[in-house]
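Re: [ENG-882] Designed sequences occasionally contain unexpected residues at chain ends

Forwarding the minimal case from QA. Structure tokens:
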């Protein structure tokens, strides 16, 4: 597969027909491990201005994705490898829903689509998470709204602390939900 590198975290496939193999995913996992934020995405759409964006995204286990939403856009996740809890929040930061997703053979839901703009984040439960994401374009950085109650995760230690707190909050949320059944 021929690619062009946009940054340490973003690659664009340049072939007219984009196909992804196991070897390509292994290569992406290695590349994710080489950058400071432990993540990489392979865009199969050719340009930022495209109306449809499709990406293969690889994240390592301790990657902190700051809670965010995309007003006016939908977003879908199709899990290829790994296990993740997608945590959905209300505007004040309370957990509304935990969506347990995993690859097809995991027995978890392996695909979901968010048709409305809600704050969400990923709590990765496996060494790697690889998923196919589809969303509306064109991409404009300003269109991503980070939750005002969420920490700035530019400092790795604050991201680590947030993941620990989120893990405890998710466990408590799921326990309360189970008790109320």
């Amino acid at each position: 597969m021929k690619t062009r590198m946009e940054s340490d975290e973003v690659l664009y496939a340049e072939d007219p027909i984009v196909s992804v193999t196991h070897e390509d995913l292994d290569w992406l996992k290695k590349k994710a491990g080489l950058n400071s934020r432990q993540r990489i995405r392979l865009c199969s759409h050719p340009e930022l201005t495209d109306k449809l964006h499709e990406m293969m995204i690889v994240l390592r286990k301790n990657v902190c994705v700051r809670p965010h939403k995309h007003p006016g856009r939908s977003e879908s996740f199709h899990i290829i490898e790994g296990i993740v809890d997608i945590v959905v929040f209300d505007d004040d930061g309370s957990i509304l829903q935990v969506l347990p997703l995993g690859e097809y053979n995991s027995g978890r839901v392996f695909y979901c689509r968010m048709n409305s703009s809600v704050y969400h984040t990923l709590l990765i439960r496996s060494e790697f998470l690889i998923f196919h994401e589809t969303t509306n374009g064109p991409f404009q950085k300003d269109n991503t709204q980070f939750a005002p109650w969420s920490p700035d995760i530019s400092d790795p230690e604050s991201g680590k602390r947030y993941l620990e707190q989120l893990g405890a909050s998710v466990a408590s949320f799921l326990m309360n939900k189970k008790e109320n059944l």
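QA comment: On inspection the terminal residues look reasonable. The first strand starts at residue 3 and ends at 5. Proposing we downgrade this to a documentation issue.
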